[in-house]
Write a structure and sequence with these properties.
Length: 261
Amino acid sequence: MVVALYVDAGSACGKTTGNFERRIAMLSFLSNGNLFYVAAVLCLIGAVGKWLASQKYKQLMRQGENLGSAKDKQLRQMKGRFENAWRVNGEVPNVEIFVDRGLLEYRFLWTSLEKTDRIGRRMGVLLFLVGGVCAWFGYRAGMEAEVAARQFFTGAGMAALLFLWDMLLDTGEKRRALGTILKDYFENSLGLRLGFRRGEETEDGMEERLSEREENDLAYLKQSLDRIATSREDIAESDSSHRLTMEEEHLIKEILKEYLT
């Protein structure tokens, strides 16, 4: 009815400008209830995206308890990056940042899991803005105040439903729980195993070095004793004194002291 009156008034006055045609198109679009369908589609996209993100977080939380048997490819890749970093540096200085970055880079539904999680709030803000803009333009184009208010509350109501849905699913808490689970696994399970292996490798290396040192000491002791025996034989053949010289006694004391310690 409002559209017909506006058309009649425009025709009577002879206003056939482009501005007049745009106002007619806006009023026709809003009067036919098209805004409700647009708002319903945006609300559905936000609700489904939020639900999918919530289910994905639950799945990752179950698999995050033991990444060694996890089926998720990206979780296994995160575990591999952690092991490589530990082997290269001997440790991962900040496990919390490592986990946060891994979750930010997690791919889901042709985008990141983080963006999929936020799609509900973004659609809610968009619905609120669409309802307000349509109501303002409709009122400026000649729509009755009651009809314009109905357009605004259509968008605002859909936005409120999305925000309520977001609170019920509480994906923010699920993400924090997932981060805690992964951090606990990396620090208190995988990190300890890697540190124990590194300690074993260090002990093996120390044992090898000690063995080499003992062999060198034994070889040195044998060589020194051979020199002393040869020296004594030379002294005996030359009918000189059978007592050891000061240099020989000092050499024997140093060898025995080093070997015994």
